[in-house]
Amino acid sequence: MIQSMNDRKNGKKVVVGMSGGVDSSVAAYLLKEQGYDVTGVTMQIWQDEPDCGLNNEGCCCGLSAVEDARRVAQMLDIPYYVMNFKKEFKSNVIDYFINEYLSGRTPNPCIACNRYVKWEALLQRSLSIGADYIATGHYARIDRLNNGRFALKTSASSAKDQTYALYNLTQFQLEHTLMPVGEYTKEQIRDIASKLKLNVAHKPDSMEICFIPDNDYASFIRRNTGKEILPGNFVDMTGAVIGRHEGITNYTVGQRKGLNLSMGRPVFVTEIRPETNEVVIGEDKDVMTDRLTGRGINFMSEPDVDDTKRYTAKIRYSQKAVPCYVKRTDEDRIECKFEEPVRAATPGQAVVIYDGEYVAMGATICRI
Question: What is the pLDDT of residues 79-111, one digit of tens each?
């Protein structure tokens, strides 16, 4: 019998990561109503508060987020603390983000933050102060399957499902996590918050990377490394030079806009070559593929690949899952073959593989 992890014994101590948004606020309320001993915590992660946008309502790491979370905790009558995770965030998210772009890959900082900061760091600190679980406002569910493994299950609201960004969580982390919001739609969560008269009931969702609110990644990398990102050549699929680019950190595979190339037809970035400082340009067909390689496998619902099983997979958060077959090519790599071509399989991003409603495994896309 599959056991829902949101049905665990009441009365246990749970630390809720409160970002100052409506989802984590309602998560804290739901868990308190279920009988858990709830403590709210906001993770102080950003290094330089002014750059984060203290007055930006969508920012999850500024002083405004702390004040919103504190007011919610007061209304819910639960203890509330701010914990400093600046060091963990810099090493596991910011430094990773910069190094990936400089290496010609497109990172997913939210996945890194979830795995190494919101879970690994917060969970360890919470357990050390006597908590049994941590909880978040993510739209996902956790079950313990008949094979004994813990697995993420897609949210009751497919439009808000966040399992893609959580594929890298470990079995230990899942065992000690609660996700009550996964049983609701976003509209239901906002309705609960409104009925409770929470000040964050209609607060907008954060849409950008929290530590780069202006979305200017290249400038952020220059400021934080002191390195001048050098221009280089745009080349076509044959290697012929067709123009000059402004530095590889300005581009990602599949990009069409902002290339400033007069080709007389739509063209796209198909590859980034940091070793030669080249950005390869091709046509629409050149960014389509029916297979990819992933490294750094994290197994979730299954302990290994079943190469006879028909899975589905997503290569970005907003993509519809596509049927595929998966095989393990070595200890830490998989090959995923899709039944129909997918667009812009981007090195550095994640391929997340599903077995029905459950996350089976995931990996980081690498250059073929």
Answer: 999 999 999 999 999 999 999 999 999 999 999
CA distance 257 to 42: 37
Is the distance from CB of 179 to CB of 140 less than 8 angstroms? yes
φ, ψ dihedrals at 101, nearest 5°: -65, -40
Rounded to whole angstroms, how far apart are CA atoms 203 and 100?
Answer: 32
Query: Where do we find the tokens 């209304």?
Result: 75
Cα diameter, the chain: 67
Residue written as token pair 């030079």: 241
* Whether the Cβ atoms of residue 36 and residue 12 lie closer than 8 Å to each other: yes
- pTM (two decimals): 0.91
Q: Three-state DSSP class for 232? A: strand
Render pLDDT for 18-39 as a digit per residue (tens, 0 to 9).
999 999 999 999 999 999 999 9
Active site residues: 113, 210
Residue the block writes with tokens 């979730």: 300
The residue type found at 351 is V
Report the alpha-carbon distance of residue 194 to residue 200 in Å, rounded.
8
Q: 326 with 334: CB under 8 angstroms?
A: yes
- In 133-277, which ranges are continuous DSSP H helix? 171-175, 186-195, 217-225
E strand map for 62-146:
80-84, 133-135, 140-144
